[in-house]
Amino acid sequence: MRTYNKSIPRYVGITDFTEVSQALGMRDVLRNATQRMKTPPVLMVGIMMSFKTLWNVPSKWTPIWPSKELLGDTFPPYETKGVLNTLHYADFEDHQNWPEEQNLFHSLAKAIDYARNNLHAIQLDMTWPSPGSIASAVHASRLVIPVILQVGRGALHQALYNPGIVADLLGDYTDVIDGVLIDQSMGEGKLMEVGLLESYIEAISLKHPKMHIAVAGGLSFTTLDVMVPLLEKFPNLSIDAQAGLRSSKNPMDPIEWEMAKSYLEKAGSLFTKYER
User: Fold this and answer.
1) Which residue stretches of the chain are H helix?
2) pLDDT band for position 3 (50/70/90)?
3) How far apart are CA 122 and CA 91, in angstroms?
4) CA dihedral 14, 18, 22, 28 (to 10 degrees)
5) Which of 18, 128, 137, 212 sits at a 20 to 30 Å CA gap from 149?
């Protein structure tokens, strides 16, 4: 039986890299900002793919995200220090409408295969997907990589926004995932509700103490102070940012790298202050 991989380092994430040089530059910014930490976080290098871009179904994201054929080479090389190369695979489709060869197992296995050369981890942006399909696809890849499950708006809605139910539902995944991202925004730049997040984190931590927990939702240089009460109580949290790194808050616009730099510097300052 598979148990927690324990290989997810604490991270500060940015989703929507499109070039290796961007990732290496931001990695260096985070390194400089966390050099006084005993155990500094790594940079999660997040690159998006969806069911539609995987299977060549027309999508507004096709011209924006890296092509699947170039996906593996868009990440920094596998041996690069200080990064966590993570494929964010989004699939909110009703697979009853698609052929059997495009089911979750086959799709996830195919997505992993495109990124395999430089892949360190995979994040599943889905609503309570089949644990068996996840396990089978990762096993079929023959890669030993940690799996992070996004618990987004749809997942929280199905759990009646009840922290206890969320923690109970995650019990079905303890043999197939290694971490969870609680994300009410899902790339739309909506600022997290700290009180609600705290209740989810507390419930998950109590029921699954070895599960790595990350949070997201409208994070940027100007909003990161919202993390202070969470870091005071849960100093090992990881974070991820996406739409908040654009002035427009529109994820279809390119990341503004000066904003990303400021976000990493501020995150480094906060992580250093609350390190235990």
Assistant:
1) 20-33, 51-54, 71-74, 104-115, 131-141, 153-158, 163-170, 194-207, 228-233, 257-273
2) very low
3) 13
4) 40
5) 18
In one-letter notation, the amino acid at residue 59 is S
**Could you read off the pLDDT of 50-107 as tens digits, one per residue?**
999 999 999 999 999 999 999 999 999 999 999 999 999 999 877 667 778 888 888 9
| Cα torsion through 257, 263, 266, 272, rounded to 10 | -100
186: β partners: none
The token pair that represents 57 in the structure block: 């179904």
**How many residues are recorded in the chain?**
276
The CB density around residue 244, as the number of other CB atoms within 10 Å, is: 27
- Residue 60: Cβ-neighbour burial (10 angstroms; 0-12, 13-18, 19+): exposed
Show the CA angle centred on residue 168, arms to residues 166 and 172, nearest 5°: 105
Do the Cβ atoms of 261 and 267 come closer than 8 Å?
Answer: no
Architecture category of domain 11-273 in CATH = Alpha-Beta Barrel (3.20)
- Taking the C-alpha atoms of residue 142 and residue 235, their distance in angstroms, rounded to an integer, is 33
- For the entire predicted model, the pTM comes to 0.94
What are the distances in angstroms from CA 148 to CA 35, 215, 253? Answer: 26, 12, 25
